Amino acid sequence: MTRSQLLASLLATAALAASTAHAAGNKEEGRLKTYTCHGCHGVPGYTNAYPNYHVPRIGGQSYEYLVAALTAYKTGERAHPTMQAQGESLSKQDIEDIAAYLAGLAQ
């Protein structure tokens, strides 16, 4: 492989990686869109008064898991009244942005 072919291959790979990163969501947009999430998920040890259950920490979860969970709440495949109400208002891009931001946080 010549140097020019190698360079062309590397540039194509970089372009593909950049387009894939964009498809995975925008972390900064996700940071702005998670303001309602922090009310429950951002408080260490938070539980609800009724019924009494643990609210999971979502920071640091995998991107794929977060996208799947939010999409399932949006479509009603996953049942939780509060999360379904949150999910219904999210677009596919919102879900990807939120997942990108949360996945980048330390647990």
What's the arrangement of secondary structure elements?
Blueprint (H helix, E strand, L loop, with lengths): L2 H21 L3 H7 L4 H4 L21 H13 L5 H8 L3 H12 L4
Helix pairs in contact: 2-6, 4-5, 4-6
Keywords: Electron transport, Heme, Iron, Metal-binding, Signal, Transport
Protein name: C-type cytochrome
InterPro entries: Cyt_c-like_dom, Cyt_c-like_dom_sf, Cytochrome_c_Oxidase_Subunit
What does this structure look like?
InterPro entries: Cyt_c-like_dom, Cyt_c-like_dom_sf, Cytochrome_c_Oxidase_Subunit. Keywords: Electron transport, Heme, Iron, Metal-binding, Signal, Transport. This is C-type cytochrome. This protein has 107 residues and is mainly α. The protein has one domain: Cytochrome c-like domain (Cytochrome Bc1 Complex, Chain D, domain 2). 61% of the residues lie in helices and 0% in strands. α2 crosses α6, α4 crosses α5 and α4 packs antiparallel against α6. It is globular. About 7% of the residues have low confidence.
Features:
Cytochrome Bc1 Complex, Chain D, domain 2; 6 helices; single chain; 107 residues; mainly alpha
State the helicity in percent bands: 55-70%
Largest sheet: none
β-sheet strand percentage? under 5%
Instruction: Please give the radius of gyration in angstroms.
Output: 18 Å
Order of helices and strands: HHHHHH
CATH architecture: Orthogonal Bundle
Number of separate helices = 6
CATH class: Mainly Alpha
- Averaged pLDDT, please? 82
Output the CATH topology.
Cytochrome Bc1 Complex, Chain D, domain 2
CATH superfamily: Cytochrome c-like domain
Q: Per the principal axes of the C-alpha atoms, what is the gross shape?
A: globular
- What gap, in angstroms, lies between the N and C termini? 44 Å
pLDDT under 50 segments (min length 5)? Answer: 15-22
Number of domains: 1
What's the β-strand tally?
Answer: 0
Q: How is the quaternary structure best described? A: single chain
